[in-house]
Write a structure and sequence with these properties.
- It contains 5 helices and 55 strands.
- The chain is mostly beta strands and about 700 residues long.
- The longest helix is centred in the first third of the chain and has 31 residues.
- The two termini are about 55 Å apart.
């Protein structure tokens, strides 16, 4: 191969491994350059994934190779300004490899200054610099020196300002930190790790900064616990879900008798975050309808609770298009409320408004794998911190007056930020986990069968769906650095990335009846929409529904219709697969799925203690499925010919159950031994003897402490 190859404005030095654009060097990793050189060396020929692994990742595990290759190709496309759907340079050949499609050329010959055959001699008088030139030159040098010193000094001090150290290093899962008013103690929840490896239920602990031992504050062994230390330091409020109760409680910070404040329905953790007003009398939290209400589907809104009188106030939503409003954070002076407006799963907005609900303003629209994972004000009230969710999550800061969000210079996997009122300290969770896809044989309850890892990497993979012919499995994964649609063979091998949006949240794949295309949800347009993608490769096409958003699409079994759900207004719809006007089928609902005979559509009503409903596929006859238990995991169910399989239970106590249409009763199929948490949709093999689901077995996190945070 030539020592250098030029294509478009780019030039690659194959000897030094340097990439230049218009003569300027472009920073790119060694593996990405190695991939580019190999593709250039094979111009016009498909370089298979096997060849790439043998040449560039010899001896690597399959998961490490896949992650490394995808990261390298994505980085190349980023620096080259290339696109996977409309490639100019690197073409993806589905399920085979990659091909460089632009003809490379030798670099143009470089010209040098002409060699003069004689010396140019100047008069000494003309060579003497004038005084004003010397002064100007001295000024420039002084400016450069001072500017460089300030810049270097600023960089060195900024790198020293934020000192991050572990605050807890206990086995298990430490979460949800909250500072004491003086910033010297932190209350947090700890879910210890048992000898079996699974995480047990948790309690609250208080730990002094600089000390190793923590003091246990509660004895509930709850499923979820979220504390908030009162500004006056006397009490700690906490939201709890568990066997001892579901609600908000108050306990003295030194320990003692707890007081029940308000009842809550069991919820996922993002719904349970608390925030105090500075007077330590009013507490903000998110809730739907009161716990005594039987009505499902009420939107979550921010409530204010007076801990002395029990009075409650419901604050106005920051915007009319919020499907729900959660995660309250009150400013240090008590004048403003920050909250998260959830538009739909994966699409959120951060708002600030006055405590009376007036003067609401949007600070950021945020895409994440679910909802945000915590919010907090800076101690001076000038900015707000928030965390995106999952393995790709990190901490961000945005000015309270508005502006562009900036990531904090910290690693990924950070959640639940907490800022001390004094002492310039920041605490957060540093998580270490990822969701894998598991398989489990059903009908083997007596044999004590355990789930087996089926598709695994050091990043997330979820929502498995089996193709109609049973040969392929579609799923979504963040292994490329962003959530995208992937497929693999039925045995979990030969993984292939199908979508290449490189940023927008993308997932929930569903097969067409002929197995030639996949529909899915993505935020690529800036709002949640449904898309169709050919399995053999090609460009994703938007499914035009005429609605404000479109989630969880799937084909009807006869291929004539595509069903989907909307948020604000909630409901289930269908649209002709060939195009046309959307038809609304239900008044509310989410997570739709079609019955095995295609006559009915099943769907979920409510966010917590969700109910399973159904309606005729032509519309009408909407009713709750009698006898079907309410679901804590509203997305982990799948209809079959005579019933519905679903996974339910609290963390580390999950079980597969089957609801029989004929008896209208649910029965235990098998416990999910070794699985701590569950994620996303499930799938069953054609014979219903194998279950595929997304979950995690090993959950670890520590509380990290950042000193000198401002």
């Amino acid at each position: 191969m030539q020592a250098s190859v030029r294509f478009g404005p780019f030039e690659v030095s194959c000897d030094s491994g340097e990439l230049r654009k218009n003569g300027k060097r472009v920073k790119v990793s060694g593996q990405a350059i190695d991939v580019l050189v190999l593709l250039l060396d094979s111009q016009g020929r498909v370089v298979t994934r096997e060849e790439l692994q043998e040449r560039l990742w010899p001896g690597a595990t399959f998961g490490d190779f896949e992650h490394g290759l995808n990261a390298a190709v994505n980085r190349l496309r980023e620096v080259l300004g290339d696109s996977a759907s409309k490639p100019r340079y690197i073409e993806t050949v589905p399920r085979r490899g990659y091909r460089f499609i632009t003809q490379g050329e030798p670099p143009a010959a470089h010209t040098t200054e002409p060699h003069l055959p004689f010396a140019v001699i100047q008069d000494p008088a003309t060579r003497r610099p004038r005084p004003w030139v010397l002064l100007l030159l001295a000024g420039v040098l002084l400016f450069v020196f001072v500017g460089s010193y300030i810049l270097l000094h600023k960089r060195s001090t900024s790198s020293q300002e934020l000192k991050v150290i572990p605050f807890t290093t206990y086995p298990g899962y430490e979460a949800s930190p909250s500072f004491s008013p003086d910033g010297n103690q932190i209350v947090f929840s700890w879910y210890p790790q048992e000898q079996s490896g699974k995480v047990s239920k948790g309690d609250l602990y208080v730990k002094q900064i600089g000390e190793e031992n923590a003091v246990r504050l509660t004895r509930h062994e709850a499923d979820f616990l979220f504390p908030a230390w009162a500004p006056d330091g006397r009490n700690i409020a906490f939201a709890m879900v568990g066997k001892d109760g579901n609600g908000i409680y108050l306990i003295p910070s030194l320990g003692g008798r707890e007081r029940h404040l308000v009842e809550l329905k069991p919820n996922s953790w993002q719904w349970l975050l608390l925030s105090w007003l500075p007077d330590s009398k009013w507490l903000a939290f998110a809730s739907d309808s009161p716990a005594s209400s039987e009505k499902a589907g009420e939107p979550y809104r921010i409530h204010l609770l007076n801990v002395e009188t029990g009075e409650q106030r419901i604050l106005p939503d920051p915007a009319p298009d919020c499907a729900m409003t959660i995660e309250p954070a009150i400013s240090p002076d008590g004048k403003y409320l920050a909250s998260v407006c959830v538009l739909s799963v994966g699409l959120n907005r951060l708002y600030v408004q006055q405590m009376d609900g007036k003067a609401s303003r949007e600070l950021a629209q945020i895409e994440t794998s679910y909802v945000l994972a915590g919010t907090a004000w800076s101690a001076d009230g000038r900015s707000i911190l928030y965390s995106t969710y999952g393995t790709t999550g990190r901490l961000w800061r945005v000015a309270a007056e508005g502006g562009r969000p900036e990531p904090l210079p910290l690693s990924h996997g950070m959640q639940s930020p907490a800022v001390a009122r004094a002492g310039n300290r920041l605490a957060f969770m540093q998580t270490n986990y990822h969701f894998d896809i598991w398989s489990m044989r059903l009908g083997a309850r007596q044999s004590g069968a355990r789930p087996a890892k089926f598709i695994s990497s050091t990043w997330d993979q979820a929502n498995p769906q089996i193709s109609p012919d049973g040969r392929l499995i579609a799923f979504d994964s963040s292994r490329s650095g962003n959530y995208e649609i992937w497929i693999c063979d039925r045995d979990g091998t030969r993984l292939q990335q199908l979508s290449f949006f490189a940023g927008p949240q993308t997932g929930n794949p569903r097969w067409s009846p002929d197995g030639k295309a996949i529909v899915f949800t993505s935020t690529v347009s800036g709002q949640v929409g449904s898309y169709s993608l050919p399995v053999e490769g090609g460009r994703a096409h938007s499914i035009v529904t005429g609605t404000g958003n479109a989630l969880w699409p799937f084909w009807s079994r006869d291929g004539r219709w595509i069903y989907f759900a909307t948020k604000q207004p909630d409901g289930i719809w269908k649209i002709p697969s060939a195009g046309g006007a959307a038809i609304r089928l239900t008044k509310e609902g989410a997570y739709p799925q079609e019955s095995s005979d295609g006559k009915r559509i099943f769907y979920i009503v409510g966010d917590s203690n969700a109910e399973l409903w159904s309606a005729a596929s032509s519309g009408g006859d909407e009713h709750r499925e009698k006898g079907m238990p309410t679901l804590l995991n509203s997305f982990s169910w799948a209809p079959v010919q005579n019933g519905i399989y679903f996974i339910d239970g609290s963390p580390s106590h999950l079980a597969v159950r089957y609801f029989d249409f004929s008896t209208r009763q649910a029965q235990l199929v098998s416990e999910l031994q070794g699985i701590s948490f569950l994620c996303c949709g499930i799938a069953l093999s054609g014979t219903n003897d194998t279950l595929f689901f997304s979950g995690l077995d090993n959950v670890e996190s520590d509380i990290m402490l950042a000193e000198n945070f401002r």
